Amino acid sequence: MNIKIAPSILSADFSKLGQEVKDISRYKIDFLHIDIMDGHFVPNITIGPAVVKAIRPYSELPFEAHLMVSEPLKYIDSFIQAGANIVTLHIETIKEKDFITAAKRLRQQGIKIAISLNPETEPGAIKNVSKFSDMVLVMTVQPGFGGQKFMAEVLPKISQIRSFYPGDIAVDGGIDGDNSKLAVKAGANILACGTYIFKAKDKQSAIEELRNA
Ligand code: DX5
Ligand code: ZN
Known about the structure:
213 residues, alpha/beta, 8-stranded parallel β-sheet, binds D-xylitol-5-phosphate, binds zinc ion
């Protein structure tokens, strides 16, 4: 499987976010990962639909809205209207049947849907809904902040998910040039990555290094 790269703009300079989105989109990357936090499901607040809408004209790449919010169903449509092409929901925040209903509806609209799980959530929790997901996003840190340390103990879970899920598996949190190799070996094929890309002196080589993981 080809490795795909999704820079997380949480590590970009928010004072010039449009320009940052434009700049990063010039590299060989696949889509942009946008971290939405509500101060409830996670202990941090980041950005809402208004900001997603404001940065939309700065890139032609797909936008993934990673919804780390307690009541995602309330907000899906406003993020789609703002320009999200992929909506990622946490299994800790939604009932299986509601996810499946949302997945069917979004597919009809041409929007992709992904399921994410926290480091301590068992792979079995997403098994039923994964059949309706375009991607599984495995958290390799506790969601809430960029710049945290990759949790290697999550690696076996990636392999377990790979054993029942043939589609795209992304990892998110603390990804760098070294642990990306471990994540890919375990079965991941998408790397969502913030700090390692945005704080790199040479973004081009950081992205290439990840792609060669
Ligand atoms: C964590 C976010 C991640 C984070 C990744 O809650 O979901 O997407 O921004 O950033 P780094 O790569 O710095 O861990
Ligand atoms: Zn994220």
